[in-house]
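Q: Hi! First time doing this. I have a protein sequence and I read that you can turn it into a structure. Is that right? Here it is:
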Amino acid sequence: MEERRRARRMRLESTITVRRIDSGIDEEVTIEIKDISKSGIGFFCTEILEVGSIYQSSIIIWTKEIIPVLLKIVREVDHGEKKFYGAEFMGLSEIDMFRIAVYEELERSEMM
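A: Yes, that's right. Below is the predicted 3D structure, encoded as structure tokens:
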């Protein structure tokens, strides 16, 4: 898979529900997060999500802190029964970006 992220990916496996907020229709779907970076997440979903659509949710990171997120779907890759999606964070607070960045630094230092 071609790397398109601006920030380093870190493994974070979690299943969450996201709610579409830009269509006027109250649509919720379950996604399986595979990785996260300071700029977004990669996840699998059995539902078809529209590229460009906006979803709202909360992600529990490694420290068990809850980060509220807005996600913009930016790409989709077919993986058989599921699709892999890339989503960018929209308006993520500096403190929440810092929380993710701290883990990135810890993971990087453990690799050395």
